[in-house]
Give the backbone structure.
Amino acid sequence: MRTILVLAFSVALVLQAGCGKDPNRPADLPTLYPVKITVTQEGQPVTEATVTVTSKTPMKYGSSSTDTDATGVATLRTYGYVGVPAGEYTVTIEKRGVEGARETTNEYGEPEMRGGQIYQYVDAQFASQASSPLSITVTDKGATETFEVGAPGKVFLGNMP
């Protein structure tokens, strides 16, 4: 009888752990729906681009940002959790890089990059919330969208210190 009780208690604990809520998830975080955005330039995936969605209606947790992977896909997360709340969003896409920098050591002995040039590789209109023509609607089914951001480019933004 004791063995059956211990076994029943163990099963109950396992089931409870699997069904419990994440204690770190904010209580006011709304239901999130999966959002995948693919970024292409002339049909080719854009890797390491930063994709940001910003709610058109101000709300807490109304912005999410992540980088595209090797296939040009960004899987959006809100507060570390996969998905974003339902709503209408403006989408911005930015890809910056540094060329010609050299690695040095700062006064604390930590490595840092110095002396390079900063470039933007996606048309600047897509990088600004005010000028981006891109938008996405997230429903209770989530959203999947592909955005073409024009021909590859390279615009000098400035020098690193």
